[in-house]
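Workshop exercise sheet. Pairs work together: one partner reads the sequence aloud, the other fills in the structure field after running the prediction. Swap roles for the next sheet.
Pair: D.N. / O.F.
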Amino acid sequence: MKGRLLFFFALFLVTVSFSERIRFVSGDFYPPFVYRDVKGEVVGISVEILKAIEKVSKLRFDIELRPFSEALSLVESGQADMINLIFKTPERERFLLFSKPILRIQSLVWVRKDLRVKDFEDLTAFVVGVVEGDANESLLRAKNPSIVFKRYSNFDELVQAVERGEIDVFLMEDLTARYYLIKHDLYHLFESLPPISAEWAYFAFPKSKLQLLEQFNAALDRLPRGEIDRMVNLFVKPRFFFPIWLRWLILAGSSVTLLVFIAMILINKRLARLVEQRTEELKKKHEELQASYEELDAVNQEFRASNEELEAMNQELEDLNRRLEEKTEQAERFQRASQEILDLVNRLTYETLQEKEFLFDILKVFKRYLPEHHFAGVILKSSQPGMITCVMREGEPIIKRIKASLGSEQTHEELLKIVADVCNEKDLTGTELVPIRSQETIHGVFFYRCENMNAVEKQYIEKFATFLANLLSFRSYVREQGLFQRRLLGVVVKALEYYDYYARGHSQNVALYATLFAERLGLERNVIRRLFWVGMVHDVGKIFVPQHILNKKGFLTTEEFELVKIHPLKSFELLSEAGLEDIARIARHHHERYDGKGYPDGLSGENIPFESRILTIVDAFDAMTTDRPYKKGMTLEQAIVEIERCSGSQFDPYLAKKFVDLLKESPEQFLRKDR
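Structure field:
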C-alpha cells in the first residue's frame, strides 16, 4: 500500500513538471518571424518552429508579444523562459544562453532591376531608404561614403514609399525584405547587391534555464532535415510572376502554330497536285523547245549576215565620233572647270565663304583651262562706300583696295584704266570685260586676256561671270543670316539666365571651356565655333522646367529630377525649329554617359556624338566647381580627382585624360569665373 502511494506521488510530480508551460516572449512586430495577421492571430516563422518543437517533444509554449526592450528585460530577470530569435553578442552572452544556430540572416541592399546597378559605387546617384536605428547603415556608408539616406520610422512606412515609387533603393534584412516585397507584389521588380553583413540568429534563455536549453536543442535535432527551410518558405517564398499578357501571348502563339500547321498540310497537298501538273506541262514545253531550237539555228545564220553589215556601220560611226570628240574637246575643258568649281562650292563653310582665297581658287581653275591667257582677275565692290577691291592671279595672289565707284555708268575705257592701274599694264589690247551681274545688282567685273577664243568659249566665260555673281549674292545672304543667328542665340541665352539663376555664368563658362578644350584637341575652326555656340545654348530647354525646381535650394525629389531630365530634348526641339540642326544634335546628348546610363536616349561609347562627349565633360566640370546653396563647389584638385574617378563610366576615357592634362597644365584658364 505504501509503495503504491509513492508511485502515484512520483507520477503526479512528473505530470506537474511536464505540464508546466514555457513562457516565450518576443518583440511585438518582427515580420516574418512573428506578427499578428489580419485575424489578430500570432503567426510567423518562429511560431511555426515552436509548433514543430511541440510535436517532437513535451515542451509547450505560451507566446507573449511585447516591445522588444521589455521582452529582453523579462528574460534577463528570469521572469520569462526564452526569447525569440536574436543575434549573439559578447554583452548578451554574459546573462543569456543561446540555442543552436537557427537562421543565417543577411543584410542586403535591394534595387530595382531596371536601374542596372552593379555595385555599391553606383548607389551614389540614388537615395537609399533605411529604417531608423538600423546598424547596417554605417556598414553601407563605409562601402560608399557618398550615399544619401532617407530614414523611415518602421518597415511599413519604408515599403509603402517603395510601392509609391518614391524610393528605388533600400536597405533591409533578406527575409524581412522578401516578406514585404512578396506581400506587396514587388518581388519580381527587385534584385539585391552582395551582402553587407551575415549573422546567425538564435533563441536565447536565462542562465538559470540550462536544462530547458538542452531539451530545446535536443528537440531541434529531431526535426526533419530541411524543416526550418520549409517553414521559411511558408512566409517568404516568392509567387511565380506570370503576367497576363504572357498568358495571352502563349495562347495566341499556340493558336497560330496550330493554324500554320493545318495550313502547311493543305498547302503541301496542293503543291503535290501542282507538281504533277507542272511536270506534264514541262514535258510538252521540252518538245516545243526542241522544235524552236531548229528554227533559231536558221535565224542565227541570218543574224550573222546582219552582224557583218553592222560592223561596217560601226566603223563609220567611230569615224564620226572621233570628229565629234575633236569638236567638243574645248567645251569639255570648260565643263570640267565648272565641275571643279562646283566641288569648291560643296566644300564651303560659313568661314571659307568670307575669304578672298576662295576667289583665288576659282581664278586658278579658270587659268588652268585657259592656258593662253596673260592674266585674269575680278573687280568687286567693297563693303566701304566709294571703294572697290581688285583681286587677281599673276603668280602670287594680289589684293588691292582702290578709291573708286563701280556701277552701270562706267564706260569700257574707264574700267580698262582701272585694270591697267592694278596690273601695271600699258597695253591692254585684247582684254575682255564681262560684268558680274545678278538681276539689277552689279557686283563687279571679270577681266581676262586670251588669244584665239571662239564663240563657244566666250559663252562659257559669260556663264562663269554669272556664277560669280550668284556666289557673291549668296555670300551677302549668308552674312546676314550669320548675324541674325548670333543675335538670336544671344537673346536665348539672356532669356535662360533670367529664368534660371544657376544659368547665369554657367553657359558662358561651358562655352569658354569647350572652346579651350577643342583648341587643345586641334579641332577645325568650324567645329570650335560650333562648340562655342552649343555651350552657350545647350541648356535652353530648361525653360520648360518649372522655375521653382531649377532654383530649389536643396536636393531634388525623384519626380522633380524626372522633370529636369526633359531639358536636353526640349533644347533639341527649340534649336531644330530655329534651323540649328548641328547644334541641336550636340545639345540633345550632353547628358549621355559613356557607360550608357545617361539620358535622354541612353547612348553609350562611340554612339554618343564626339562633340557631345566634349560638352559632357566641361559641363560637369563647371557644375563641380560652382557653389550651390546646398553644397560648396569643388577645388580644381578635387574636380580632377572626380573626373579621373568617372573616366570610363560617365566620361569618355580618352577625352577625360586630355581634359585633366589641360587642367594641370593651364589651371589659370579655369579659375577666372566668380564662384
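Discussion prompt: The CA atoms of residues 331 and 455 lie 11 Å apart. What would you look at next?
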